[in-house]
Design brief:
alpha/beta; TIM Barrel; three-stranded antiparallel beta sheet; 12 helices; globular; binds N-carbamoyl-L-aspartate; binds zinc ion
C-alpha cells in the first residue's frame, strides 16, 4: 500500500504554550489535526473557566488565516478548584476535560494536586456531570524510582480513586508501561489511555546509550524496550480504549540542552509520518485511522471529522527540518531515528 486516506486526525494531548511559542507551534499541529485537547500547564496555569476562555481566544487569534482547527480546552485541577465554576465552564461547552497533575510530576506542575482527598468534591462533581479527567499518572514520592512511577501511581492512586468513584471518566495519558496498557485494557468502567508518537518509536536506550540525548527526555520518561513493544501492540491493536495524544511539548534548545534540561518532546510536525511508519512496521496500516481519528472522538462523545487527509509513501526519505524557529528560540523536532517515507499530501 502506498496511499492511505484517513479522516482528519485529532490530538488528545497537546502543549501549545502561549505568546510567540504558541504562534510558531500552532500551525505545525493545525496543518494536519482538526482538534486537540490543549494542556493547561501555562505559567500561571489555566484554572478557571475565565482563564480557559481567554486562552482559547489567544489560540484562535494565533491561528493563521485559512487554517481550520478547534482547540478543546482543559482546566488545570488544583486543590482550590471551584466545582461550580468548573461545572459552569463545562455546561457552556468551554471545557472538554480537567487535567490532574500530581504536584511536581512534570513541567509547570507546581500548582498540581498534593493530596487527592482535597479534590474529592471536584472529582465527585465531574463524575456527576460526565466531565472527563485526564491524568498525568506518576507518583512524585522521592523514594519511588522514576522508572516505576507510573506503575506505582496506578496501584496506589488510580485504582483506589476509580474504586471510590467508578462513574468518573478517566483518561490515563501518555502511557509508557506494559502495566499501564494492562490496566487500561482490563479495567472495568469508563477508562481510556493515550499513547504518544515518541513512546512508540523510542525506548530508554535511545535516550541514554552512546551519550545522553536531551531531546528524547520527556515525562513520563521512556522505559525499557519490552514496555515500548507493549505500547506498539496496544496502539496497533484496534482496541478503541487506546488513541493518540502526541504530548508534543515544545521547549527551546537552550532549555533542553542544559545542565538541568526540561522534559518534553516536540513532535507535531512529523507525527503523522512517524505513525504511518510505525503502523506499517507493525503490519497495521488499516488500524491507523482508528488510533488517530475515530477512537478519540468516540471517547469524548464527539463526531469524527468529516474532512480527510491522505498519506503517500514516497520512494525517497521525506525531508523534515531539524528545528523550527520560534520567537523564543529554536525548537528541535523529534528525530525518529529512521528515514520517514510517508507524507501527508
Ligand atoms: C510536558 C511539558 O513540557 O509541558 N512535558 C513532558 O515531558 N511531557 C508536561 C507533561 O505533559 O508531562
Ligand atoms: Zn503533556
Amino acid at each position: 500500500m502506498t496511499r492511505l486516506t484517513l479522516r482528519r486526525p485529532d490530538d488528545w494531548h497537546l502543549h501549545l504554550r502561549d505568546g510567540a511559542m504558541l504562534e510558531a507551534v500552532l500551525p505545525e499541529t493545525a496543518r494536519h489535526f482538526a482538534r486537540a485537547i490543549i494542556m493547561p500547564n501555562l505559567v500561571p496555569p489555566v484554572v478557571t473557566g475565565a482563564d480557559a476562555a481567554a486562552y482559547r481566544d489567544r489560540i484562535l487569534a494565533a491561528l493563521p488565516e485559512g487554517m481550520d482547527f478547534a482547540p478543546l480546552m482543559t482546566l488545570y485541577l488544583t486543590e482550590d478548584t471551584d466545582p461550580e465554576d468548573m461545572a459552569a465552564a463545562h455546561a457552556a461547552g468551554l471545557v472538554t476535560a480537567v487535567k490532574l497533575y500530581p504536584a511536581g510530576a512534570t513541567t509547570n506542575s507546581a500548582s498540581g494536586v498534593r493530596d487527592i482527598a482535597k479534590v474529592a468534591s471536584v472529582l465527585g462533581k465531574m463524575a456527576e456531570i460526565g466531565l472527563p479527567l485526564c491524568i498525568h499518572g506518576e507518583v512524585t514520592t522521592p523514594e519511588v524510582d522514576i522508572f516505576d512511577r507510573e506503575k506505582v501511581f496506578i496501584d496506589t492512586v488510580l485504582e483506589p480513586l476509580r474504586h471510590r468513584l467508578p462513574e468518573l471518566k478517566v483518561t490515563l495519558e501518555h502511557i509508557t508501561t506494559s502495566d499501564g496498557i494492562e490496566y487500561v485494557t482490563e479495567a472495568q468502567g469508563d477508562i481510556a489511555g493515550t499513547i504518544t508518537t515518541h513512546h512508540l518509536m523510542i525506548n530508554r536506550n535511545h535516550m541514554l546509550v552512546g551519550g545522553i540525548r536531551p531531546h528524547y527526555y520527556c515525562l513520563p520518561v521512556a522505559k525499557r524496550s519490552t514496555h515500548q513493544q507493549a505500547l506498539r501492540r496496544a496502539a496497533t491493536s484496534g482496541n478503541p480504549r487506546f488513541f493518540l495524544g502526541t504530548d508534543s511539548a515544545p521547549h527551546t534548545d537552550p532549555n533542553k540542552e542544559s545542565e538541568c534540561g526540561c522534559a518534553g518532546v516536540f513532535s507535531a510536525t512529523n507525527t503523522m509520518s512517524c505513525l504511518a511508519h510505525v503502523f506499517e512496521e507493525e503490519g497495521a496500516l488499516d488500524k491507523l485511522e482508528g488510533f488517530t481519528s475515530l477512537f478519540g472522538p468516540a471517547r469524548y462523545g464527539l463526531p469524527p471529522n468529516e474532512a480527510t487527509i491522505t498519506l503517500e509513501k514516497r520512494a525517497t526519505a521525506i525531508p523534515y527540518p531539524e528545528k523550527i524557529d520560534t520567537g523564543e528560540g529554536p525548537v528541535t523536532l523529534f528525530d525518529p531515528g529512521h528515514p520517514l517515507y510517508w507524507v501527508v499530501v
